[in-house]
Design goal:
This protein has 2 helices and 8 strands; from the N terminus they run αββββαββββ. By secondary structure, the protein is of the alpha+beta class.
Length: 153
C-alpha cells in the first residue's frame, strides 16, 4: 500500500541534487528561507481502474524559495529538468515495493513572499498510482471426504 510520506520523500530524493540547503516536507516554516524547497501533499482522488484495482491521483506542491526572481527562474529550470525526466515513467517509492507515475508538471511565475527578501516559484507535480481493492477472504475447505462406488449404484 502506497504511503504519502514515502512519496514525499521520493520526490525529495529526486530533487536532492538541485543544490538547496534544506527541504521542508509537508510543513512550511512561518518565515520562508531562501534556497530551500517545500514539498506538500495537496489531496487525492480515486477512480476505478479495473475490477481488482483503483487509480489514485495525487497532486504535490513543490515550492522553491529564492533570493530574487532570477534565482527562482534559474532554479525552476533545474527542478523542471529533474522531475521532467520522470514524466510518464514509474518511480519506485522510497522504502516500498510500490511505484508512482509522474503524470504532469506545471510551474507558476516567481512572486515575492510575505518574508522580506524571499521570493518563490510554485509547481504542481501530479502523480498517480494503482491500489488493489480489498478482497474478501474465505474459510478454506478443511476436509474433503469422497466415497467411490465401483460398479453400479
Amino acid at each position: 500500500m502506497a504511503d504519502i510520506i514515502g512519496e514525499i520523500n521520493t520526490i525529495g530524493d529526486l530533487l536532492a541534487t538541485v543544490g538547496v540547503t534544506r527541504f521542508y516536507k509537508q510543513d512550511l516554516p512561518l518565515k520562508y528561507v531562501a534556497n530551500t524547497i517545500g514539498i506538500r501533499w495537496q489531496g487525492d482522488s480515486d477512480s476505478d481502474f479495473t475490477q481488482a484495482a483503483y487509480a489514485i491521483d495525487r497532486p504535490y506542491q513543490v515550492i522553491y524559495f529564492g533570493n530574487n526572481e532570477v534565482d527562482c527562474l534559474n532554479k525552476s529550470k533545474v527542478i523542471r529538468s529533474k522531475l521532467g525526466d520522470y514524466l510518464s515513467k514509474k518511480v519506485k517509492i522510497r522504502d516500498s515495493d510500490d511505484y508512482i507515475t509522474f503524470e504532469s508538471f506545471s510551474m507558476s511565475p516567481p512572486f515575492k513572499t510575505d518574508t522580506d527578501g524571499v521570493y518563490a516559484v510554485v509547481s504542481v507535480l501530479s502523480v498517480s498510482l494503482l491500489e488493489a481493492y480489498t478482497q474478501p477472504t474465505y474459510t478454506k475447505i478443511g476436509e474433503v471426504i469422497a466415497t467411490i462406488n465401483e460398479g453400479g449404484i
